[in-house]
Design a protein that fits this description.
With 483 residues, the protein is an alpha+beta fold. 28% of the residues lie in helices and 23% in strands. Strands 5, 6, 7, 8, 9, 10, 11, 14 and 17 form a nine-stranded antiparallel sheet that branches. β1 (19-22), α2 and β2 form a beta-alpha-beta unit. α4 packs parallel to α9 (321-340) and α7 packs across α8 (234-242). The chain starts with 5 loop residues before the first helix and ends in an 8-residue tail after the last helix. The protein binds flavin mononucleotide and manganese (II) ion (MN).
Amino acid sequence: MPAQDLRQFIARLESAGQLRRVSAAVSADLEIAEIASRLVAEDGPAALFEHVEGHTMPVLVGAFASMQRMAWALGGEDLDAIAGRLAGLLRPPAADAGLMEKLKAAPRLLKAAGARPKAVRSGPCQEVVREGEAADVSALPVLTCWPGDGGPFLTLPQVYTADPDGANRNVGMYRLQVFGPRRLGVHWHRDHDGARNYHAWADRGEAMPVAVALGGDPVLTYAATAPLPYGMDELVLAGILRGEPVRTVRCRTVPLAVPADAEIVIEGTVRPGETAVEGPFGDHTGYYSPADAYPVLHVTAVTHRAAAIYPATVVGRFPKEDCYLAKATERLFLPVIRTVLPEVVDLNLPLFGVFHNWAFVRIRKTHAHQARKVMHALWGMGQMMVTKFLVVVDEGVDVQNTEEVLWRVGAEVDPRRDLLTTTGPADVLDHAAPADGPAGKVGIDATRKWPDEAPGREWPEPIRSDPEVAQRVARRWAEFGFE
Ligand SMILES: Cc1cc2nc3c(=O)[nH]c(=O)nc-3n(C[C@H](O)[C@H](O)[C@H](O)COP(=O)(O)O)c2cc1C
Ligand SMILES: [Mn+2]
């Protein structure tokens, strides 16, 4: 059963003992962020701060901050099971499939077609409406997370945009800095879809309408972070994951639709060419991302529920809540990668790699030089293009175990022969990449080398126990007097 809104999800977390209500007074200035960091570091619960100094709205943090809560947020118990369900829905029947197979696939595809959002006339996200001069984002308990931050930032927003023709609706998570009661900085990276829509408007010299939603079914928050190709609507992904369409209402002051069941909505426009200094911001890299010029959102309305809850997250040095959102993407998109690269068995974007610094890939190797093929293909796939270090290992290696991967890198690699160094786009947050021009990338082929790949070398087998003896010993362990 999908959650209708954030409240239902909070109730679910609470009944599972996974949410703590905090009634003591706390400050939105650094204090909530410090508590959130401690909670995620000790695998603690989500927290709902009911008494935020100077504010009436409560603040929710940590709703996604465990594998279990992340799976619940996507309407399941386990991320791999959700990924399997999604892969089954997305896979069209093969061209040469029999009639029965095609008939069986039809309801699957219809189900995906029925995932488009459904417009409704009114929704709780507009119980309170403040337009024009009455709109004021300083009424929201926006967190300042780190001492060097340029100010308070909205950290868990769904940013809704479309191109000037009203097509290519996009939902992306881009942080927003509070510059004033009706001015926000919009930090969409240059190669993200919100920026692409913005440039389409700017090319016509027109201001782009933008809506920012907070809350609603937690699936929506995840969908805003999902790396879908441009033109694929994140609300359809949300509808597929929920098994029910997302209900949307028209915004009051801009021609966009937002989830009817959101907690809070900010409406406004971004004018072509106008920028302001945004940042610095303590980022998920573990460093401050420096101040830079970003577009400005001029707020035209703020609408919210009568007793709205403000959802937030705190990013910073790992582990933080966004690691779990990224792990959800790693699991959900593995089947998508496998449609193009069937040899990929598993993928790990380790937390310390902050999504773009490291990727460990496990392949079923069937031909020589295959690791290099996989590297080139992954560097050509969506947001994987910014991956800096890409390690490819054989099928027998557990990529979820970093020591095992590094053991193989040490043992299977000749640095002169097995490193592929190349260049390509860098992540915007990579402070080590050259300021101009393409960034360096390294692919490490840590698979066992085939005769064609390492002529004149016999490749030894890794040691494994005799399975029968190992089983026998396990069975008799207590008999030997061991625990
Ligand atoms: C907590 C969190 C914060 C994020 N902040 C930003 C941000 O400020 N700017 C940005 O461009 N991407 C940010 N991202 C990544 C994007 O949301 C992500 O790449 C998404 O796929 C972008 O959507 P798009 O492909 O529709 O542009 C953030 C992700 C998370 C989980
Ligand atoms: Mn997108």
